[in-house]
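Schema walkthrough. Field components (list of strings):
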Amino acid sequence: MRSLLLTAHSWGQSEMIFTIAYKELKVLFCSPLAWILLALIHLVLTWVFLGRLDAFLEIQPQLMQIANPPGITEIIITPVFAMAAIVLLMVTPLLTMRLVAEERRNHTWTLLISAPISITAIILGKFLALMVFFLVVICLILALCVSLLAGGTLDFGLLLSGAVGLFLLAACYAALGLYVSSLTAQPVIAAIGALGILLGFWIIDLIAGDIDGWIHYFSLLKHFEQFNYGLIDTLSMAYFILFVFTFLVLTIRRVDNERLRA
Amino acid sequence: MTETAQTASITLSVQNLSRCYGNQTVVHDVNLQLMQGEVLGLLGPNGAGKTTTMQMLTGNLAPSAGCIKVCGVDLFEKPRDAKAHLGYLPEIPPLYQEMTVDEFLRFVAKLHQLDSQKIPAALDSAKQRCGLQARGGHLINTLSKGYQQRVGIAQAIIHNPDIIILDEPTVGLDPNQIREIRELIRELGTSSSVILSTHILSEVESVCDRVNIMHHGHLVLDETLAGLKEKDKSLDTIFAQLTVNSA
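Field assembly_structure (string):
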């Protein structure tokens, strides 16, 4: 614990974070996995996007008669982002499973531990690499949405708030997946474990929809909904950031303690 | 380089190192000292605690008790400063199979915080010393076991560490490769300290200056090869005496 977060501030170590992140991205984009996932994510999202676009064109005459009609951002983009939240929930375990578990299985973990680099830097580097990947995903989704400018105007505030929400949500998924990956040496187990826990969070969301109680506060997707409705809520933001922080610290502690255990 | 080797200074000092797994003590009160420019052979039967000791020396495993100083830096107080002096080849070489040899070695050099200007030179020299010049662009998973082992060694020496720790470096190599690797170890021993674990006695005789024998987690012999020769004892008989009788 002593060498935990404070030491990562020194310049050498923050440079190490980028070295690790660069390596992770290189390995990720060398394999077909990243490309297949990018393609699949966009296949699903474009399908939802086109479906909503059709629906919008159908109801457009009725909308004209309402005094203050919802715009294309609410009708088309909000559902796309909501779908993206679910798709990322499914995809993240596939991306996080390798991060620590595969290094263990391939015995490359020793290389990282023997090098003059703190465990904090290793974990943050891996987390950063995932966030870069998610940033690419979100930029592509934004590009999809911006294409609507060809036929109308967009509410950029709402779009931005949704994108920020999706980014924070993805960060939560990534931190959780990273932690599960650090628990095992089997990537497949890491993937199934992370998927199971994330599905659990989804179920919490479904339950939270029925009853209005404390459980509401634990639902990742409920907090994301706030962002997706254009409401940047401090509570939701704090929840996301605490969630990420907690799981990153747990991962670092778990990996650090490994050397001590029998 | 050879002048500095003669003014021998202690590069690695290990005191009362122990490691328990549950109730079982795997490494028991080991003391080690390594001089600059010395090749130390760590011998022992299977399960004697050689690998565990090496894992502790490289910070992969925390000891239950004891103190490790690398070039005067305590491994537990300043792990990163201490690890900068170490190069480690574990039993199974830690290689990213999907990278090319150049990519991998460049990554390792960056991990060891070499200046980006110095990296190309370090890369060339490591490849040249390990006979990998023609393999720079090859993917690691297309290389044979012997070449992968060489990449493993290149990885351990690219940053010119003061102490090089090699865990069974010649396992799985053909006789020619074994000879080449032994020559390389000899050469490394002129500028750095090398610890070499093995259970091949002839390997120790051909490359090491000093030999330590471990048995059941205890260090049962610490003798220079010259000293052994003086006493007119062969390593073979001593090894058998120390590790068979007490078993």
